[in-house]
Specification:
The protein is mostly beta strands and 1023 residues long. Helices cover 0% and strands 46% of the residues. It has no helices and 91 strands. The strands form 29 sheets. Strands 4, 8, 10, 11, 12 and 14 form a six-stranded mixed sheet that branches. It is flat. The two termini are 53 Å apart.
Length: 1023
């Protein structure tokens, strides 16, 4: 591989490489060239050729320009994150100040290297900042430099290494370390680990000062060439926002912490400018922080703070309650609970207090906490009322059959009481404080319950009434356990004790009977208790007797009819234990549910059953049996049918109909139809005819369905205009044709001649067979127009020009060049004949054209030349019949071959030559004016205020012909770039005015005499 300058006709070799001795040996067949002194903007040529007879293969080129070869021009990167670079043989060894590897000593050029001996070099040393090289064998081979600014007290750099020429550490790879410098590029001190490898490294720098610059030195291990990329996880960019608490509960606060080391902070929302802020959001909120770094670079951080809503706390109790009752609490809304109240606390969801006292009254608070740890509090009030004190009085003794007055009282509570005595049946009134008893014959304990009328709280007390002496007795009885409803039975009473004669008084339950007789007669209609009261003039005793009223059985009678003749008549009855039936034709049976079979119309009539039960009581019921006559069924159809016809079925003789037939056919109508008949549904169709009472009979009809004939229709389409169209049909006995243009025919195979385009279309034939069934078929006729092909385009061109030929008159085309397009283009180098075949369907036509190619002239504008200002020179052009010089400036005549040129500056002329065929070619010539260029001027300040003074910035020189100018802001961002020597910067960036401040520039260019120029520096933009 070789590198040349000059032109293709006159090359000068700059560099050549047939092989390169890379570190290791696996890549030694790859050429490497290092060229210096090149002129920016000039054209160079790279030539490559096969090695050792190889004729094919793949290869790639890597072109780079070392810009950070020395510490003094270290590449400054404010944010290292994402930087990519490479070690390279183009990087020269740089050992400024005290920079040495740990196996190196002395100053260049007498520096020495001794492997295995630590001679004091700092590259590869370890310390409190981290580890160093494991052996004293580190050397500097092809180092390069990066300078960055720290934004934290430590920085972590993750380095991915790839495409190493040697390929595997320790035989090859990259070695790196970070250094501080007391002043730029002097008095270096390591601040990080020393790392080396060929795949991945992690370098940690410690003890950094925020805002200070540090140097990262990268060196190819043993001179190896590797690519690498750097990811900075901390130290050169700001860490994320953190929160003291996240999430928080509604109403709570937390502190958001901005990253340390920034020069300015701006929070959104809120516009606070402190590093940390305290926030109390009412809902989940995203906060943004604009952080200004030590390099002036702004970074935007976001943090979403989650806010959990408070739980909905509810609390209740079962109060008011009375003293001694249990208090029950109910809480909800969370996952944990905390109750507090008068001398009470609990963590239960639903706690309780047994044996309540009035001291438990008061307000109880419940704090509810949910699964997120958020709490809410509510309260509930508890009321415990005191109980009144009941007093039933003192025990007392009375004679048998006499009464007593009870003496009850109450104290305590609210003072308003309700009284209730039990047993209440032995008192004249049980709801007063001092009630009177009835005449008592047995000793009785009476209980007094006093209830506070305001609170409902109560207490009880007891008193005993003691009875002395013998009692009056009565014994009531009946002559039997009971009687059927409507029958009679005698009842009576036997009294003893007390004083006679006795007085009797009878009543009943249910009410309705009274009597003063000792032994009355009764007629019970329901089960009745008869109560007798016996009075001896002083005391009354009561007794009773129960008499059953035996209910009559509830007789039922039914049948499952109506019936049809031949069915079984089923009679059903219920309601008792014995049954006796009677019906038409002297019918009788003692069966509960008898049947009659077969049923006859004469069996119709009323059937009566007498039902008796176990008590000897009886009742009757009647049911009516109906036996209906059978209907007279008919069935028919209108066939035979053809496939596709509608089948019509007919029936009669009843009230409803149900058809069945082939293919699971079913229909409930009297005269159904079946559309689109097919042979598959031919066969017998049966109808069930239903008459009065659901009686049925059947009828059948046979349906015949003939298949449609299979008709064919065809032709020999497509046709061209003028052919004879032949239509072909088959499958029937009679035919009818129809088609485009009102065509019709009764022939089986009609002929249409001559064919016209208008006769294209679909032709239909309907054929009928011997069964009278018809079917239709179709065929499509295409009649194509005959094409008329014609080629248009020039038949004479110049050598090397492109010819375009277009064919028309057909739908499809095929050229003798193989093209299927209607239009073809070709670059002609000799005369040729072009033929095209055009077609419309199967119809074709051919056309051709012969193209003559005329030779082009060879233009020659003469050699480049240099003259002095004010001199003239004659240009000498040749190669054609006519001439045109472009531009015409400073020429005596631009339309002759040899005009006189008197330029005022260097100029390049283009000569256009035309020959006798009108064909042209061009050549150029440079007339260089040898003038004084003067020095290059770059302003150190400008003010773009449109006052006509210093409004633009640029590189100024009258001889400047090539320029590459770049302008950067203070953060290293490119704000302007041009390759036009006449273009200036107007102080705008991305459509907006750039800020006032210090900017840097760098340019490379070429003067008109091919002198290279280069420069860099700073300037001030003033507004």
């Amino acid at each position: 591989m070789a590198l040349y300058s000059g032109t293709c006709s006159s090359l000068t070799q700059i560099a050549c490489s047939d092989d390169h001795n890379y570190p290791g040996s696996s890549n030694d067949m790859r050429p490497f060239m290092l060229a210096t002194g090149l002129t920016p903007g000039s054209i160079v040529f790279l030539r490559y050729w096969a090695f050792s007879g190889n004729t094919t293969g793949d290869f790639g080129l890597c072109v780079s320009t070392p810009t950070n070869d020395a510490c003094s021009n270290a590449l400054y990167i404010c944010d290292l994150n994402g930087y990519e670079g490479t070690t390279n043989a183009a990087y020269t060894i740089d050992r400024p100040s005290n920079m040495r590897a740990n196996a190196e000593m002395n100053d260049p050029p007498t520096y020495t290297y001794t492997s295995g001996t630590c001679q004091g070099g700092i590259f590869g040393l370890g310390g409190v900042w981290g580890t160093g090289a494991p052996n004293c064998d580190v050397a500097i081979n092809n180092n390069s430099w990066i300078r960055f600014t720290a934004s934290g007290d430590s920085a972590v750099l993750d380095v991915d290494i790839y495409d190493c020429y040697v390929g595997s550490y320790p035989s090859g790879g990259i070695q790196m370390q970070v250094f501080s410098a007391a002043t730029p590029c002097t008095t270096f001190a390591p601040v990080s680990d020393f790392k080396e490898g060929s795949s991945h490294l992690t370098i940690t720098a410690r003890g950094l000062t925020i805002g200070n610059d540090y140097y990262l030195m990268i060196d190819g291990f043993a001179g190896d060439i590797c690519g690498y990329s750097i990811s900075a996880s901390s130290g050169v960019l700001f860490p994320d926002i953190t929160a003291a608490n996240d999430p928080i509960c509604l109403g709570g606060s937390t502190t958001l912490y901005g990253p340390a080391g920034a020069s300015a902070y701006h929070w959104y929302p809120g516009n606070q400018t402190t590093q940390n802020i305290v926030v109390t959001p009412s809902t989940t909120m995203t906060y943004s922080l604009e952080v200004t770094g030590v390099c002036g670079h702004r970074q935007y951080l976001d943090y979403t703070l989650d806010v959990n809503q408070l739980p909905t706390a509810t609390a209740s109790s079962n109060t008011p309650v009375c003293a001694g009752d249990a208090i029950s609490f109910t809480g909800s809304g969370g996952t944990s609970y905390s109750w507090s109240g008068p001398s009470f606390s609990s963590t239960a969801n639903n706690p309780s207090i047994a044996g309540a006292t009035t001291a438990n009254s008061g307000t109880y608070s419940l704090t509810v906490t949910d699964a997120n740890g958020c709490s809410n509090t509510t309260t509930t009030s508890v009321v415990v009322n005191s109980n009144p004190t009941a007093d039933a009085g003192n025990d007392t003794t009375i004679a048998n059959g006499t009464s007593a007055t009870l003496a009850g009282s109450a104290t305590g509570g609210t003072g308003s009481y309700n009284y209730s005595w039990t047993p209440s049946g032995l008192l004249i009134s049980s709801n007063i404080a001092n009630p009177q008893t009835v005449n008592l014959t047995t000793s009785t304990v009476f209980t007094l319950t006093v209830t506070d009328a305001s609170t409902g709280c109560s207490s009880t007390s007891h008193v005993t009434v003691i009875i002395s002496g013998g009692p009056l007795t009565a014994d009531a009885s009946a002559l039997g356990a009971g009687a059927c409803v409507g029958d009679s039975i005698a009842i009576g009473v036997l009294a003893s004790g007390g004083l006679s004669p006795y007085t009797y008084s009878w009543t009943s339950n249910p009410a309705g009977f009274t009597s003063n007789a000792m032994n009355p007669i009764v007629y019970p209609t329901v089960n009745t208790t008869y109560i007798v009261s016996v009075w001896d003039g002083f005391n009354t005793v009561i007794d009773s007797v129960a008499v059953a009223a035996y209910s009559l059985p509830v007789a039922t009678a039914s049948n499952t009819g109506p019936y049809c003749p031949g069915e079984t008549i089923q009679l059903n009855s219920s309601g008792g234990t014995g049954y006796l039936w009677a019906g038409p034709n002297s019918y009788g049976t003692a069966t509960e549910d008898p049947s009659i079979s077969p049923a006859l119309v004469g069996n119709s009539g009323n059937y009566t059953v007498t039902v008796s039960n176990g008590n000897g009581c009886s009742s009757t019921a009647t049911t009516t049996v109906t036996v209906n006559p059978l209907p007279s069924a008919t069935a028919s159809n209108g066939g035979p049918y053809c496939e596709g016809d509608n089948i019509q079925l007919s029936s009669g003789g009843g009230l409803s109909y149900s058809w069945e037939g082939p293919a699971s056919y079913a229909n409930p109508t009297q005269n159904p139809s079946i559309s689109n008949a097919t042979p598959a549904i031919a066969g017998n169709y049966s109808v069930t005819v239903t008459g009065a009472g659901g009686c049925t009979s059947y009828a059948t009809t046979s349906v015949v369905v003939n298949e449609l004939p299979t008709i064919t229709a065809s032709s020999n389409s497509p046709y061209c205009v003028g052919d004879s169209i032949v239509l072909l049909a088959g499958g029937g006995s009679d035919y009818v044709w129809s088609g485009p243009g009102s065509f019709s025919s009764n022939s089986q195979s009609p002929i249409i001649a001559p064919a016209l385009i208008a006769q294209s279309g679909t032709y239909y034939v309907t054929a009928t067979d011997v069964n009278g069934c018809s079917n239709t078929a179709q065929t499509t006729i295409i009649v194509n127009a005959s094409p008329n092909v014609y080629i248009s385009g020039a038949d004479t061109i110049c050598e090397g020009e492109t010819i375009t030929l277009t064919a028309t008159g057909a739908s499809n085309y095929e050229w003798n060049t193989g093209s299927l397009s209607s239009t073809i283009s070709a670059t002609a180098i000799s005369s040729a004949t072009y033929i095209v075949t055009g077609s419309i369907g199967s119809c074709t036509d051919i056309d051709s054209i012969s193209v003559v190619v005329n030779p082009s002239p060879v233009a020659d504008a003469g050699p480049d030349t240099t003259i002095s200002p004010g001199d003239a020179i004659q240009l000498n052009g040749s190669g054609g019949l006519s001439y045109l010089w472009i531009p015409s400036d400073y020429l005596s005549d631009a339309n002759i071959s040899n005009p006189i040129c008197t330029p005022e500056y260097s100029i390049t002329y283009i000569l256009l030559v035309t020959n006798e065929f009108g064909c042209t070619s061009t050549d150029t010539v440079l007339v260089r004016l040898d003038i004084e260029c003067g020095s290059i001027y770059v302003p150190n300040a400008f003010s773009p205020n449109n006052d006509g003074k210093n409004d633009v910035f640029g590189v100024f020189n009258r001889c400047l012909t090539v320029i590459d100018l770049k302008v950067f802001n203070q953060w290293g961002n490119l704000v302007f770039e041009t390759t036009d020597p006449t273009t200036r910067w107007d102080g705008t960036f991305s459509g907006h005015d750039a800020e006032s401040g210090i900017y840097s520039f760098y340019y490379k260019g070429t003067l008109s005499d091919e002198t290279p120029v280069e420069g860099k520096g700073n300037f001030v933009l003033i507004r």
